[in-house]
């Protein structure tokens, strides 16, 4: 509880207000999965922070998952708030709104256009609402996904409008920590294909000019938005606002909680001397993750289909029923009775943009259907309907959604888009991977875990990806034990971390330190 005084009609009035925490999330599964594990632990620690509620911002399709977190059941510790992006823009996919350019592999990733789009999106649809909410609720802490580029601007706007200090804000990072001048370098972007593929001198110059143009557009939009749209004065821009380049820096001045093992973070040595960056490890909580792939009733339906499929693929049918989610069967016990699983999932954001990709993967996996049970998650119903007619054999299951953690605990190979969430889960359970990065941070992750750490093989989802290449790559992973051994060694490291719990400890400490300074 928080006490403050106000003078009303000449008398002293004591008001009692509830202390709340805001959480601004990215409404996309890959970002939300580790966030929910963190939030579930966070609400258990609300009394330690003298807070009564976590106000969770996301997209409305995730509302049930958020409100039904295990530690919130029957307690009403979470208040859900919709960004209302779908109402205002036609989609709640915040990542797609920020990346409204060609995101296909082998094309230039226009990062400054992301920043520009984020500012425009905030000014048009988010800032006014978020600032008013901050004024009404006076959050003692704002937690935000680092992939959002507008939170620090929103806090600055709130401070200016209401002539008050900015609330404490802390970022959490669901992928590798990036910072200007540390990671990635220009050479990193080039080798990952994020500047284009096989560029000659003229094309490299065109790429440089495009990025330079995007950068100056970003600068113009930044200052124009703050001065013209949000009515900052020139003095405000010079003296009060964080400069636009500091937005590019991405590191929060207060604290950054990185849900990555330090052992896999690129250029760790350059980050380790920064007190405000904490590598807490993967945020994977089986209790939470088993229930957040889809609404529970829908997921029960999909689990039933998976169990029926696996029951048809028993190695030894001695009256043993498929034990998947409805018992405490461990992965090892499961493998005694079932064919090894090859699991394919290309995420939920960019999964339906490449028809060539799914067709090639399905045809390639068909070659292994006699000895392996193949489960292919399409990520949504629309993509499922598009490809449902491509399989006819009982040993291949095409399905819209899966309980991914439960499958990975029992999988022999994982073919993935290399989203950090999926790779962290594969690493946690020691499953070798084939990475086929589609966009966003995926090329970074794929390069690191496949090319540098040796946990799998990286392929490009372009014309070079043929059925024959899929078959040869799967065969190589399955027959070369080095990939599995590397995955298992990383799994042992991963088991030492509980990122969602460690992050909460640092969050509590950050709030206590901040409030101690405010009392001085």
Automatic annotation (TrEMBL):
The keyword Transferase applies. Keywords: Glycosyltransferase, Transferase. It comes from Brachionus rotundiformis. The keyword Transcription regulation does not apply. One of its GO terms (molecular function) is UDP-glycosyltransferase activity. Belongs to the UDP-glycosyltransferase family. InterPro entries: UDP-glycosyltransferase, UDP_glucos_trans. It comes from the Eukaryota. This is UDP-glucuronosyltransferase-like protein 1. Pfam families: UDPGT. SUPFAM superfamilies: UDP-Glycosyltransferase/glycogen phosphorylase.
